[in-house]
């Protein structure tokens, strides 16, 4: 009997926990603690504990599939590559697009954007960061010059106050929730602002239940109170920021008085005052947020408001402070870092800057896509649905827009308008079912690589088992396809490490990293520009990343959501996750231990709203918006604010994203998943 323990990094949320995969006779049979990993000290959430269960699922993709009529037929790799290569060559660059993935490694994201730009010559490459943290990238880059979490996870334990807004941390990022509890045990006060009294809220010292979409008003109200009482950090503002007077002129308006903010948000005035005082007087305040802040038509404004309050109080660049933007997927940070975005190469080097294009052209040894910004994934879906024939061909790696994107009927229409769709994945997802060619990929346990967590920590995956059947690592598939299309010289890789070496050469923030340096459990935080550099757990210690070193205050007015309740649709819908499932459920729903806990979705509704509609707990109801309807079980609970409803988005059979609004933030192009108008009806209702 051959048993081995392979240290690796969790494939689920952005925390980046480490564990040992237990391998017996060539199969992953369990997970064991990796106590030396500093992120989680050997502890795991349920998803991490059962991260081995989907690996050997019977319905893993094992051979390439080619569509013949309404059926998929198994094919050889050569047949699949020949068909894809010949078909790709028929299209003009502007008629093609690629979607990369927050689930795959840095090396594979780097290769997908390189394939798009060097082989297909198309600027149209993006991934699902557009759907979760595009607002963070834009908002924090505008405020601080860098669009990433400013602290390390361990720092959170040193905070004296913590404001959690737009994040159910204990369920979404449980091992970050552990650091929150360590801070609380050290005497920190926890403020939780959310429409739902979640597991996170139950541990808070102050709970602020508010209506989805009120974030800017709430934060402006806090800032007015802080300035009125002289709690702002005058020295920090003077030495390290600019445009404070512009901010002050907006937040001091009467509309952001606590009385008015209470009307907008539904939070009692006295609780707003208490929260503002705790934050204003704190010597170390950390703000944790996730998609409850970002997934709005005002997502960028929400993020910039968080940045504003932290600059106002000087809570940046020190342990226990900072803006902790908690990434939803395991490698959404890394996919952004690698340039799987339409506007930047790796390391956020803008494609529209000629020097950057020349640098990549020289490094890659071929002509590239023209230096213009391509379609975002949200714009792309709209173009596919509303302007058929504009983009005709799409290559998707490890993404499932048929469950993850808003207004799914609209998504389906767009994907069905394509002439040619290639999907590369580990399972036949809802999106893969629409493809012309499906390519079987290896999962995290079946390949080497790196991923970058929410705290910018770059950590290794280590191959533990072989892929099933003929499945291959994504980097290998991309390299072989590129060679088939005449770019073998540009894609000569024989290992993930060779790709990472190239990443380090062209990406300044990763410049000092090597696989050898990443071998230790601590790994490295970017920026790590040189081989001697220790990495950077805390950003902005002495100056911000703007050329002048100053942080920028942005005055912002509160705007309501794109769709607000009315007589026809009188309630607000917000969406999110639960601890037992993850995103579109492709992996967790094939994990027996997780699926058994919460096997289907529900809609939370306040008892007062339920009573008015004659709905009882556990009853099947119809949830309906202007975009569609689903049948789903009602969960009547006083843990949700009156006037609000909540649906988790993991479940294809009652898909929340049939209902959600695809209205976009004008800058980040992120959809408004977190607020739209809904009505709940008894089955058989009008």
Describe this structure in words.
It is a single chain. The chain has 686 residues and is an alpha/beta fold. It folds into 3 domains: 235 residues, 3-Layer(aba) Sandwich (Rossmann fold), CATH 3.40.50.740; 192 residues, 3-Layer(aba) Sandwich (Dimethylsulfoxide Reductase, domain 2); 112 residues, Barwin-like endoglucanases. The protein is built from 24 helices and 30 strands. A 7-stranded mixed β-sheet has the order 5-4-18-17-16-6-7, covered by helices on one side. Helix 8 packs across helix 12 and helix 11 packs across helix 12. The chain starts with a strand and ends with a strand. The model has no long low-confidence stretch (mean pLDDT 95).
Q: What is the structure about, briefly put?
A:
The chain is α/β, with parallel strands linked by helices and 686 residues long.
% residues in beta strands: 15-25%
Strands, total number: 30
Q: Which structural category fits the helices and strands?
A: alpha/beta
CATH topology of the largest domain: Rossmann fold
For the record, the count of structural domains works out to: 3
Shape call: globular
- Spatial ordering of strands, largest sheet: 5-4-18-17-16-6-7
Distance between the termini: 63 Å
How would you sum up the major sheet?
7 strands, mixed
Alpha plus pi helix count: 24
The helix content is 25-40%
**Rg over C-alpha atoms, rounded to the nearest angstrom:** 24 Å
Mean of the pLDDT scores? 95
CATH class call of the largest domain: Alpha Beta
- State the low-pLDDT regions, or none: none
CATH architecture of the largest domain: 3-Layer(aba) Sandwich
